[in-house]
Amino acid sequence: MSEQNQRILIVEDEPALANLLEDYLKAAGYGTDAMREGTGVVEAVRDNPPDLMLLDLMLPGKDGLAICREIRAFSDLPIVMVTARVEEIDRLLGLELGADDYICKPYSPREVVLRVKAILRRLQPAASSPTSAAGLALDESRFAARYQGTALELTPVEFRLLKAFADQPGRVYSRAQLMDHLYTDQRVVSDRTVDTHIKNLRKKLNAVTPDEEIIRSIYGVGYKLELPF
User: Fold this and answer.
1) Full-model pTM
2) Of the residues 42, 68, 92, 126, which has the fewest C-beta atoms closer than 10 A?
3) E-assigned strands of 140-184?
């Protein structure tokens, strides 16, 4: 899909910032819609899903974390949180609720556009065959994942994480190596960010096979995938 056909929903209550983001995104070839408060955002996404949403954390009506939580109940829409709340707990909480990225104010609108491009580029169908291993099937062309015949509702970050593990089952990955698979733009993120994604991915896999833990922690080293035979 070309950028001209991709639509970005901007949820930002500061008109100057919202207008600035719209200008830069339109200049980059994206279509844009904007909402100034949290009320009605979930319904708007459900009725007319955008390709990506830029979501302010502190909004009148309903805050960004609540919006993210509700949307994740029915959609894997890429969500980038844009906020002035820079505390680590807020970053981790946003990621746990399923946000795909996190940009702190003040920011460069050019950086926002680059982040948007990077996320949407990673979602484009890849010219590769599906990955299959011991009950796990990943199809990059459709961004679809199944485990033991059950569809997994994964965020883009979780899909890339599981794909890295599935490409080399049994290999132990350090957190730094996993970061390279998750983020290609050389951003600085903490080890706890990787741990949060691992925790969320484990929860979804364990919902299918509660008695098996296929992503194992290797103390002092990292993580590996162990699939039952």
Assistant:
1) 0.58
2) 126
3) 144-147, 150-152
